Amino acid sequence: MVHVQISSPKWFFGLDGSFELIAAVITLIVAIAAWKIWRMTKERRHGWFSLAFIFLSAGMAARGIADLVIEKVVTCAPALREALPAAPGMTRTAFVFIAGYLSNILFTLVAFIILVCLAFRIRDKAIALLLFLLVIPTLMISASYFLSYYWLSMILLAFIAFGHYRHCRETKKGKTVTMAFIFLGLAQVQFMLSAVNALTPFVKDIVYVTAHSTQILGFLMILLAFIKTILK
Amino acid sequence: MKRTKLDIVHDMLKAIEQKGGRIIPTHLLYKSNLSHQRMKLYLEELKRKNLIVEVEHKKKMHYELTDNGRKFLQNFKQVKEFTETFGI
Description:
The structure holds two protein chains of two kinds.
Chain A: H1 15-41, H2 44-76, H3 92-119, H4 125-140, H5 145-171, H6 175-194, H7 201-231
Helix pairs in contact in A: 1-2, 1-7, 2-3, 3-4, 3-5, 4-5, 5-6, 6-7
Chain B: H1 5-18, E1 22-23, H2 25-32, H3 36-48, E2 52-57, E3 60-65, H4 67-85
Antiparallel strand pairs in B: 1-3, 2-3
Helix pairs in contact in B: 1-4
C-alpha cells in the first residue's frame, strides 16, 4: 500500500499549498495577458508564451490543491478522507498526492520546454520535439520522479534565465524576469537538497521552507514585471 | 537601432492612421521606409491578421485600417513593453 510521506515541517503545512496557489494565479494572469496580445497580433510566439504560462498555472494549481487537500485531511478533518477519490494499492491521500504532483511535474516541464524554445528563438519543430523526447521519457524511467523533476527543471530554468539574460543585454529590458527565472531555478536546487536523505530533519525542513520562499519570490517578481508593463 | 517586426507593423499601421485610416500603396511604401519586396510580405501578413483590408476608393486601391488594427495601435505601447519584458 502506497502512503504519503509529508516533507513539509508542521508549522509550514498548508502554507506551501497557499504559495503554490498564489503562483498559479500569477501565472494565469500573465497567460491571459499574453493570450489577449496573441488575439491582437496573431503572432505565434505570443500564443506559445500564453500556453506555457497556462501549463505553469495548471501545474502549480494541481500541486497547491493536492497539498491543501492533504493538509485539511491530515490536520483538520480526517473524516473527509473517505470523500477523496481512491485507487487500488494506495491510500486515498496518496492518490491525491500522486495525481497532484504528477500533473504538476508534467505540466511544468512542458511549460519550461516551451519557454526554452521561446528564449532561444527555436523555430525548428524537430529540436523542440527532441527536447520533449529527452525530458519527458527520462523522467518516466527514472527511479525518483522528484529528484529527476527538480534536476530537469533546474537545467531548463538555467537555460531560460540565460536566454533572458542575453535578451536583457541586447535590449536593456527584462532584468526582473531574468532574476525571476534565476530564483525559480535556485528553488529547484533547494527542493533537490531537501530530498537528500543524508541531511538532518531540521536542515531538510529549513531547506524545504527556503525552497518554497525562493520559488514564490520568483513568481512575485514575474508579477512585478507584469505590473510594470501595465503601468508604462 | 534596428526596428523589430512589431515596430515595423506599428509604423505601417500608424502611417495609415495618420492618413485618415486609408492610404494608397505608394504612400505607405514611402512612409514605412521598407523595400517593395519586404512591404509586400508585411502587407500580406497584416491582411492575414485582419489588421488592414484592401478597399477601392475613388477608383484606386487603398489599404484601410480595421477595428483590429486600431485596437493594435491603441495597445501597441503595452504590447511592446510586455513582449520586450518577457523576451518573447
